[in-house]
């Protein structure tokens, strides 16, 4: 009976509640939900702005790398010019202290002595290097790759003054002159004076075979390995001479004064990437257009 009275009293009290108060109670949850949506939208906009400026670093960074490669290209060209100037300098006598040759690569030096033809070795196959020729020699890679295949004749050279033995790259011979009996006239036995360009040891390329001294197979210029095999000092000279020697003689001047120079391709790559990503960034974030 008491419970029924209380229920009746609650119903009576509910009848006197103002409609406005009910409306206010119903609106409050909607206002909170709107604030949540507004806050989330603001956070999304703020995150989008961060991503926007982070992505801008792609064209900016690639443009900077392109500028760096321009600097590197100028530096490499200047270095090549410097090496060319060194190789064309006036020849000097070879120093008695061979350790000084470590800083004299590409410089011409004069030596006097005698070739030890019985210890001659061949490096190859190698292509003929030509300098200052208007037309390529018959047998170059352009005309006939098979005829251009040849070998470098490496002969120990005993210095007259000290008796030390060094290595001299006498020059290039075609495949047909590989046997010694076909170039006997070129094997000078008298004491001579020659000019050669200092070269240091050569690192083996990633796809180049290893040298096999026991088989007489030489593919690259490893001065320490060669000197140990031939009983000489690890000193190497590229012989200089007339570009058109008598028939059967090695062709001298086989010094390639070049450095790996791929900076121009890097410049094109980085600047292209910078331009492309800058256009895409402007289209999407500034003009508000789709990427595709």
TrEMBL record:
The keyword Membrane applies. Its main location: membrane. The keyword Plastid does not apply. It is found in: Membrane; Mitochondrion inner membrane. Pfam families: SURF1 (PF02104). It is a multi-pass membrane protein. One of its GO terms (biological process) is mitochondrial respiratory chain complex IV assembly. Keywords: Membrane, Mitochondrion, Mitochondrion inner membrane, Transmembrane, Transmembrane helix. GO terms for cellular component: mitochondrial inner membrane. Probably involved in the biogenesis of the COX complex. Belongs to the SURF1 family. This is SURF1-like protein. It comes from Parnassius apollo.
């Amino acid at each position: 009976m008491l419970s029924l009275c209380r229920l009746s009293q609650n119903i009576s009290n509910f009848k006197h509640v103002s409609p406005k108060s009910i409306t206010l109670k119903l609106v409050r949850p909607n206002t909170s939900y709107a604030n949540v949506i507004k806050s989330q939208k603001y956070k999304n906009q703020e995150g989008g702005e961060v991503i926007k400026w982070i992505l801008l670093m792609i064209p900016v960074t690639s443009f900077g790398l392109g500028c760096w490669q321009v600097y590197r290209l100028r530096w490499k060209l200047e270095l090549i010019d410097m090496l060319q100037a060194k190789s064309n300098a006036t020849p000097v006598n070879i120093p008695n202290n061979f350790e000084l040759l470590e800083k004299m690569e590409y410089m011409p030096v004069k030596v006097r002595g005698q070739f030890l033809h019985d210890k001659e070795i061949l490096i190859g196959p190698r292509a003929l290097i030509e300098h200052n020729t208007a037309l390529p020699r018959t047998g170059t890679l352009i005309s006939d790759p098979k005829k251009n295949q040849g070998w470098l004749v490496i002969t120990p050279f005993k210095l007259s003054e000290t008796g030390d033995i060094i290595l001299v790259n006498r020059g290039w011979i075609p495949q047909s002159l590989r046997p010694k009996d076909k170039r006997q006239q070129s094997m000078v036995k008298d004491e001579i004076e020659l000019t050669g360009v200092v070269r240091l040891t050569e690192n083996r390329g990633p796809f180049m075979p290893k040298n096999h001294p026991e088989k007489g197979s030489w593919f690259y210029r490893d001065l320490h390995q060669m000197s140990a095999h031939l009983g000489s000092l690890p000193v190497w000279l590229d012989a200089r001479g007339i570009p058109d020697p008598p028939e059967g003689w090695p062709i001298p001047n086989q010094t390639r004064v070049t450095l790996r120079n791929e900076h121009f391709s890097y410049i094109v790559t980085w600047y292209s990437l910078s331009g492309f990503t800058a256009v895409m960034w402007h289209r999407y974030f500034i003009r508000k257009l789709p990427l595709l």
